[in-house]
């Protein structure tokens, strides 16, 4: 606290703490702050743990269900039947099939209600026909091939399935995900025999097969099938596209029904060249009530085309038989559905994004409480602040995600175990950097921490639900354009969801197939979107960092004076300061009239400022040059003049007191000099540095005790002083000594008070801590805005001694409402009213200049008040009664009209005439002068 403390320097910036020193101070403070908020941290860390355990329990429940007999291969103890023992085929997907059965190759035909109508009418009692379109460059060859498509020859085989296969079977049912069982035999849809042109005169065929270990018989229906020529392949494609799924499956079409059993383009086919394109239906379902399988019936349409060409080239009796199609043999498996990988992206997205509102709230809180500005005013640079803030939150994110992945892996979630850990680490690394940058960027939008918190959590949970129920549908729909998905991925929550979705899909498939999940080589997979997501997030990370830095400069977000949006293009030359004298603005009949209003003492101060502007003097630490602050009027109201052209020069070793009623402009003046407000015009120089252009250098040697205490509730008084001491370049034993001296000076050292959390301090203790903060590190310029507010008399007296001691080698500007404090501490005083300096001088000078009266107080019986008034009138005709109540009266008597001896003699003589119970005489006090000047100034016309 003394002038010998380390950290002093003759000029701001001469002993500036390095970036490393600033970063070290802030990092230490943040670590301590984090330790004090251990309960909150535990709650945050417990969220991913709870999610992992919840998913683990859910997966165990699902596994227990799949462990039941209905989902296992083996033998039914009741019947003794092994393998595919259930008629619904429920075990077919998991049982070993060493010798898969062979099935006839079917043609996929539309359901009756969807079939294209030929000639605008149905075909007799056989219902609507199945239609096959065809085309080719040579019409005659195309016709010949089409006529041979559905020709059949009888089979000599005794096997009913072989005989049936030669009859060109068809079905409107859909294949299962496995071809172990032909769905046409188990589904209720009819089994058709496709006939060329007409079913008239054709007999039905019965089929007997050994299905699921038991004999099975089914009848068939004849299906008339027609071939229709189209001019070219484009017409076929257009017709297939326009008519698909246009009908009502109940048989009551609402639009044109136009579905076909297939189509062929024979293109350049000739006797020496077979060139064909086959159109077949792979849409999987005809109505949304059916689950999509994984296979389409392609073998039979291909066989028909080959057989037609052979018959066209060789003869009608030629045959290329398709005896059967069958599944590949496979070993037994057990059903294992990793639902946590499918459901995980939603929960994992919530976990990953949970730190976003934490980051935003923390930064906005420091802005809302002006804590960042407080740190900046004591020497913390923007670069150090953002570097430590960024690294601090990124480190927290890394620790948070480490626990997330570690706990998920320990409880057995395949989402983490199967996917490459290095690939996950890269993805989380890029995303966490993006999230921290976005959090800092979003903090520039908000001014209230509660609003930021609510908005942050709505952002997290809202986008999580949109990702699960909206974005995922686009990812799963293969018909969605790549551009739409890419566009949505530019929204950071959707890019996060896409990455987690890819990990989930690979983990699900890997768990089902007993293979690994996503590896680095999978990034080149056709449908893998993780590579694109990483690129998008990396680019957005850099863009978000730049925008956060830029908006922090041009938006007044707690970092002080905001810059012009094009500040990087503006000249770095010093702005010229205005030297015009303070003026008031009088409005007379709509005409603005400038009137000089400077009083002699104020005018003399202005002349000193004008001289110093041209002839700098290092003895003056603070120079205000016509400093003004005007708030533009709104809704038709006039402009509000907070400070009206202040010119002031404060020397080193001087404490200047600013007095004035509430709203006089004292705090606005200080806020401009500490960089919290931008001057409307004029400027101030601190040790020769302009507050408009060199505020960052000024901060390194400035101390501030703001009007409201700006402290962290969870940090102790000692920790506050240690932090701000480090910002003032104090280190080691010098720092410890300075902190102890500061605590002792403001009476916060004894009984361990300095080591208690400041949230437990009383209002007076917090005020004393703010004063200690302003003086730590021996700043050359100190601003104290009502430092003794809320202090008891003993603490106030102690604080005065601290300030008196601190005046050595410093310039102090102090505002107060206590006249006693102003007389005790201030070398000079300035009284402000309506934003203008009304008078300036020391207390004795002001009382002498503006209070040249004696104040006589006399108490008598009430009926003798007139006698007292006559006596006072005898002293001076200019005497004025200023107070009277119940016999006690107070009079002001000009000193030029009467001597004190005359007053004493007159009072002693008056005691013989009437009863004087008490009396006293005093000079004018500073409070009297203050009230007098304030009253006089209230009638002044506003200054310009």
- CATH superfamily descriptor of the largest domain: P-loop containing nucleotide triphosphate hydrolases
Radius of gyration: 46 Å
Helix content: 40-55%
Query: Helical segment tally?
Result: 29
CATH architecture of the largest domain: 3-Layer(aba) Sandwich
CATH level-1 class of the largest domain: Alpha Beta
Arrangement of strands in the largest sheet: 2-4-5-8-3-9-10
Please state the structural category.
alpha/beta
What is the makeup of the main sheet? Answer: 7 strands, mixed
Number of strands: 27
Unreliably modeled segments: 1-9, 82-90, 120-124, 247-251, 285-293, 572-596, 940-944
Mean pLDDT across residues: 80
Number of domains: 4
Tell me the distance between the termini. Answer: 42 Å
Strand content: 15-25%
Do you know the CATH topology of the largest domain? Answer: Rossmann fold
Form type: elongated
Provide an overview of this structure.
InterPro entries: AAA+_ATPase, ABC2_TM, ABC_transporter-like_ATP-bd, ABC_transporter-like_CS, ABCA, P-loop_NTPase. Pfam families: ABC2_membrane_3 (PF12698), ABC_tran (PF00005), ABCA12_C (PF24526). Keywords: ATP-binding, Membrane, Nucleotide-binding, Transmembrane, Transmembrane helix. GO terms for molecular function: ABC-type transporter activity; ATP binding; ATP hydrolysis activity; ATPase-coupled transmembrane transporter activity; lipid transporter activity. Helix content is 42%, strand content 16%. It is of the alpha/beta class and 944 residues long. The chain folds into four domains: 102-326, no CATH class; 357-554, no CATH class; 583-845, 3-Layer(aba) Sandwich (Rossmann fold); 852-923, Alpha-Beta Plaits, CATH 3.30.70.100. The strands form seven sheets. A seven-stranded mixed beta sheet has the order 2-4-5-8-3-9-10. A six-stranded mixed beta sheet has the order 19-20-21-16-22-23, sandwiched between helices. A hairpin with a 2-residue loop joins β12 and β13 (591-596). α8 packs antiparallel against α14 (449-476), α13 runs parallel beside α17 and α26 (843-850) crosses α29 (926-938).
